[in-house]
Amino acid sequence: MDQAEILTVVRDHVRSCSLGESTGHDWWHVVRVASLAAKINQSAGGDPIKVELTALLHDVFDEKFYEGNVADALNALIDQLGVRAALSNEIWDGIIFDILHLGFKGGFDQTPLSLEGQIVQDADRLDAIGAIGIARAFAYGGAKDREIYNSDEEVVAVGTAAEYRSGSRHTINHFYEKLLLLRDRMNTPEGRAIAEQRHKYMEEFLAEFYREWEGE
Ligand code: ADP
Ligand code: NI
């Protein structure tokens, strides 16, 4: 199996298991992350196959929803899809390592990632901010029966991982615990430039949101 074929097999599998997902890890999130990562990679110069495989597989077994061991599950999937022999074990292990550490789990995982992992982490973070990020946050909040905002509740900027997972705060709080922090966490210059614009858009959104909340 050549590298183009591996990508097709993995892409088809991920599409079939994530189409219609409603927790923010739907197929279109994966498509956006893969294409942003490819764009960032044009200047970052990582291995395009590793970038795309990491992007495609990064949310298949999310710790927020998957109870088992994520590395074991990814290894089993690689075998099940018949793509293992096409790349070295070192490459697969590197991809799995990056996936285990690139997500936000209530706090920022400081584990150093490979260049390709850093690129996908930037793309994943970019998809959590800006107009798309705002839409995803309210979609997630709605799926969890959360209020959009509650001006009687104090905004809590940083919670623990457990609080983040089980949290029942209003969705505007999520901007302060995560979304507004992402701009300063970008790994690549290209990612930082895109984040800057998306961050400004969220600040404008929040300013307008509060104006309207006050009945202006
Ligand atoms: P990622 O795909 O970036 O790893 P997560 O798995 O943390 O993101 O969450 C998926 C999406 O749901 C993201 O857009 C994220 O900002 C949003 N989300 C996660 N937790 C909350 C929350 N408590 N309130 C609102 N949105 C959330
Ligand atoms: Ni993601």
Automatic annotation (TrEMBL):
Domain HD: from-to ranges: 26-129
Top-level taxon: Archaea
Coiled-coil spans in chain: none
InterPro entries the record matches: HD/PDEase_dom, HD_domain
PROSITE patterns found in the cross-reference section: HD (PS51831)
SUPFAM superfamilies reported in the protein's UniProt record: HD-domain/PDEase-like
Full protein name: HD domain-containing protein
Source organism: Methanorbis rubei
